[in-house]
Design a protein that fits this description.
GO terms for molecular function: flavin adenine dinucleotide binding; UDP-galactopyranose mutase activity. Belongs to the UDP-galactopyranose/dTDP-fucopyranose mutase family. This is UDP-galactopyranose mutase. With about 425 residues, this protein is of the alpha/beta class. It has helices at about 40-50, 95-100, 125-135, 140-150, 160-185, 195, 225-230, 245, 260-265, 310-315, 340-355, 365-370, 375-425; strands at about 1-5, 15, 30-35, 55-60, 70-75, 80, 90, 105, 110-115, 120-125, 215-220, 235-240, 255-260, 275-285, 295, 305-310, 320-330, 335-340, 360-365. Helices cover about 40% and strands about 20% of the residues. The relative contact order is 0.18. Helix 1 (about 40-50) packs parallel to helix 13 and helix 4 (about 140-150) crosses helix 5. A hairpin with a 5-residue loop joins strand 5 (about 70-75) and strand 6. It has 2 domains: about 1-105 and about 220-260 and about 375-425, Rossmann fold; about 110-210 and about 275-335, Polyamine Oxidase, Chain A, domain 2 (Alpha-Beta Complex). It is built from 13 helices and 19 strands. The strands form 4 sheets. Strands 1-2-12-4-3-13-19 form a 7-stranded mixed sheet, with helices on one face. Bound molecules: flavin-adenine dinucleotide and uridine-5'-diphosphate.
Length: about 425
């Protein structure tokens, strides 16, 4: 078996088995087959193995664990994220303390600048953004007043355009949101649910952090290392380079957890659920620093990429060179983003009804439940799913115990009746 653990930090638990391995004779198979070794699949694998002593086979079609959060050291020795910048932030104490079992943390508060009017200004829009763009000197009260004068109130806020125009007006909407969103989604903000641009707040103070969450830290040795620790359990077998289709009829298992795209699982029966993809251009440049912060956004439609990430800001690594990722949105390719709009939610509901009617299969994660979730939300969802599994097992266990007790009582009664009958003779 070839060890495919990334970063050369293999502990011998993550393995790639030859394709077409037959499992029919494996010691009574697995309790769970889990498809997808991202946050959803890996958290559930860890919980089921550690908490319930289940035997789990975790598969992924990619050659690595960690799903979209996968990071690795590139040729320059810099820790980069293969699928674009992944910044950990959460308000959930439960999620933070769960993940803390598998990693130490490095404090990091994410800062983003936007390239607008030929300068770099803070996004989310804040007091400094307004001062720089309009050459003003403002107090927070002035900034609030200024935005109020620009805002164009929308009676019913439904779309991603409504949200922004309602809070900062059309001019700032066009500078920061319209072009970026059109590029990122291939749709106008007026065609997208309000939840998309609502992710980015507006501030009237000088807080220039991208997120306001109470816990903002990065895994000290990266995400992949954290996943390796999570999956380091004798009950968990990991198979990489393995598509569900290849093993679904070859592996014995009782229950299935599926964190791939739900429409694919059902052979696109009701049609394809739209997912937006990205192409990544990773490069290393011969200079120590490239940009002042980890991420610079490019809202202009005259530039093809949406953002550039410089990873050294996330890790604090010291290196004479620096590594970057450019993101180019695309229709084709790996499914990265569910597309939040009413018709897609409608289509998803059909698949969800089918999922509810499919016994012994649970759908999880961003693709399995078609939700534009951040990492912490996926972890929270997986932990809740695990709690429901525990409750169901306890219920089943209680029913089985009650049935056993009933049988014992019945048996005793029958014996008593039989004895009485024998006595009557
Ligand atoms: P995934 O990580 O997608 O894992 C699913 C896995 O299933 C994949 O590895 C896939 O290969 C595998 N799979 C699918 N189908 C099959 C099959 N049939 N057979 C075998 N394997 C299969 N979140 C944040 O909190 N902060 C951020 O800064 C952030 N930045 C992001 C940036 C980008 C560019 C993207 C795309 C996402 C970002 N996210 C961020 C979101 C984050 O990536 C997700 O919330 C999280 O990774 C979802 O985990 P998951 O397990 O649901 O899915
Ligand atoms: N957005 C934008 N301009 C920006 C930043 C964000 O228009 O400078 C919009 C865009 O539609 C984007 C959404 O807000 O897809 C959510 O932004 P976020 O940074 O959360 O996107 P993600 O990191 O998930 O790609």
């Amino acid at each position: 078996m070839r060890d495919l653990t990334p970063n050369g930090a293999a502990k011998g638990k993550v393995v790639s088995m030859p394709k077409r391995t037959r499992f029919a004779n494996t010691r009574s198979g697995f309790d769970y087959l889990i498809v997808g070794a991202g946050f959803a699949g890996s958290v559930l694998a860890e919980r089921l193995a550690t908490g319930l002593d289940k035997r789990v086979l975790l598969i992924d079609r990619r050659p690595h664990i960690a799903g979209n959060a996968y990071d690795h050291y590139d040729d320059a020795g810099i820790l980069i994220h293969r699928y674009g910048p992944h910044i950990f932030h959460t308000n959930s104490q439960q999620v933070a303390s769960y993940l803390s079992r598998f990693t130490k943390w490095r404090p990091y508060e994410h800062k983003v600048l936007a390239h607008v009017d030929n300068q770099l200004v803070p996004i989310p829009i804040n007091l400094t953004t307004l001062e720089k763009l309009y050459g003003l000197k403002l107090t927070p009260e002035d900034a609030a007043e200024f935005l109020k004068s620009k805002a164009e109130p929308v009676a019913e806020i439904r779309t991603s355009e409504d949200v922004v125009v309602n809070s900062v007006g059309r001019e700032l909407y066009e500078k920061f949101f319209r072009g970026y969103t059109r590029k990122q989604w291939g749709l106008d903000p007026s065609e997208l649910d309000k939840s998309v641009t609502s992710r980015v707040p507006t501030r009237t103070n000088t807080d220039d952090r991208y997120f306001g969450d109470s816990f903002q830290q990065m895994p000290l040795h990266g995400y992949t290392r954290m996943f390796e620790n999570m999956l380091d359990h004798p009950n968990i077998k990991v198979m990489l380079n393995t598509d569900f289709e290849e093993v679904r009829h070859e592996v014995q298992y009782d229950k299935l957890i599926y964190s791939g795209p739900i429409d694919e699982f059902f052979d696109f029966r009701f049609g394809k659920l739209p997912y937006r993809s990205l192409k990544f251009r990773h490069e290393t440049v011969d200079q120590e620093n490239f940009q002042p912060v980890a991420v610079v956004n490019y809202p202009s439609e005259s530039v093809a990429h949406t953002r550039i990430t410089e990873y050294k800001h996330l890790t604090g690594q010291v290196n004479p060179r620096t590594s970057l990722t450019y993101e180019f949105p695309a229709d084709d390719g790996d499914p990265y983003y569910p597309v939040p709009r009413p018709e897609n939610a409608e289509l998803y509901r059909k698949y969800q009804a089918l999922a509810d009617a499919t016994p012994n299969v649970t759908f999880a994660g961003r693709l399995g439940t078609y939700r534009y979730y951040n990492m912490d939300q996926v972890v929270g969802q997986a932990l809740s799913m695990y709690n429901r599994i525990v409750e169901a097992e306890e219920r089943d266990g209680a029913i089985a115990r009650a049935a056993r007790e009933m049988m014992t009582v019945n048996g005793a009664l029958r014996a008593e009746v039989a004895q009485q009958g024998a006595g009557d003779d």
